[in-house]
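sry for the spam today, last one i promise. struct tokens for design, 359 residues
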């Protein structure tokens, strides 16, 4: 399996030499064209000592600094909160309270969750206790670089259904996002009649600004964009522009929702294209951690997703842009919004999105 081949390469940081290596491997397998992306690579080094003993830890992007202090006095200690996005809130709280550094602990699990750059923050593999003496030596920087999106045309058309996935990932990254590459690989034989089909493998989804690769991708010939991201057995969250909601019938759905602003579909949404992401937040216990690993259920889930997406694509291919636009506008009106055009009509709102009140 493609995912297991790339899994052996380890962590793939946005803009890094390894990200470009992965894209070259994918180009060798799928063909296609590499399209330049201006991005940043995160370069970092970390050493952590607890009571004089060196321990294993991960640095949170994009923190940096050298600190010596006592846990509970100079350095704030937290257990992993229920949701990964709460890590940043706890980090900001620690900054406001004047702590020199932050340590998170998740029963030995290591994670990378972007929090900022004001004080160093780590996940510790070893339990750390109040009163422990800790030394953190963290050097990190963001370096301007060039990476690529890989565009593969499967079948020609006047416009295209795009199936996309990002190739950069924090730590092991099996379900976020190597598994999605296997799903795409399983769709190579799909035959469409009305629209063309493209696969696009995106650079730099994870940061330092979400979706750098897809933001720079030229979208003029897009019909519908479908992003595959953070999939996990055995359901999907169907996160989409409302004109696509009816197609959720092809999937084992956990819930249907407005587009989330944290994956490669969202730049398409804001620029006025029908777009969606399939993901599953059942992955949260392993999200951005070193425990995001292959599991037994993956094979069955892969087959199910390929079959569901194949049926979805064949049905979606029957529609025109005008039909989808009509469904979109009628849905917005039913929600109390007067939409003149798609572009800019949906805006980010916390962990989800909403219709803009006025255009």
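last one done:
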């Amino acid at each position: 399996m493609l995912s297991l081949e790339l899994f052996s390469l380890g962590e793939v940081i946005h803009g890094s030499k390894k990200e470009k290596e992965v894209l070259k491997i994918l180009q060798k397998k799928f063909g296609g064209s590499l399209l330049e992306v201006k991005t940043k690579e995160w370069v970092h080094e970390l050493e952590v000592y607890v009571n004089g003993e060196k321990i294993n830890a991960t640095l949170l992007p994009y923190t940096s600094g050298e600190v010596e202090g006592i846990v509970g006095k100079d350095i704030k200690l937290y257990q992993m909160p229920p949701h990964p996005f709460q890590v940043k809130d706890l980090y900001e709280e620690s900054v406001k309270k004047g702590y020199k550094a932050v340590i998170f602990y998740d029963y030995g699990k290591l994670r990378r969750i972007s929090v900022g750059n004001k004080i160093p923050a780590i996940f510790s593999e070893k339990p750390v206790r109040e009163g422990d003496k800790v030394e953190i030596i963290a050097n990190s920087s963001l370096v301007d670089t060039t990476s690529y999106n890989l565009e593969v045309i499967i079948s020609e058309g006047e416009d295209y259904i795009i199936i996309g996935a990002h190739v950069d990932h924090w730590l092991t990254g099996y379900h976020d996002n190597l598994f999605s590459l296997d799903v795409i690989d399983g769709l190579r034989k799909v035959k469409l009649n009305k629209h063309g089909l493209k696969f696009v493998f995106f650079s730099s989804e994870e940061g330092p600004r979400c979706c750098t690769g897809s933001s720079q991708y030229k979208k003029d010939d897009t019909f519908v964009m479908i992003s595959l991201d953070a999939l996990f057995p055995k359901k999907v969250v169907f996160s989409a522009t409302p004109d696509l909601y009816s197609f959720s019938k092809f999937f084992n759905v956990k819930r249907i929702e407005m587009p989330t602003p944290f994956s490669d579909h969202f730049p398409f949404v804001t620029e006025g294209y029908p777009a969606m992401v399939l993901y599953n937040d059942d992955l949260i216990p392993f999200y951005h951690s070193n425990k995001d690993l292959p599991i037994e259920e993956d094979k069955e889930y892969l087959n199910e997703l390929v079959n569901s997406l194949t049926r979805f694509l064949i049905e979606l291919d029957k529609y025109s842009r005008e039909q989808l636009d009509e469904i979109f506008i009628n849905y917005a009106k039913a929600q109390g919004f007067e939409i003149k055009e798609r572009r800019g009509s949906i805006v980010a709102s916390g962990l989800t999105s909403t219709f803009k009140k006025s255009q």
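The longest helix spans residues 298-316. ok im logging off now
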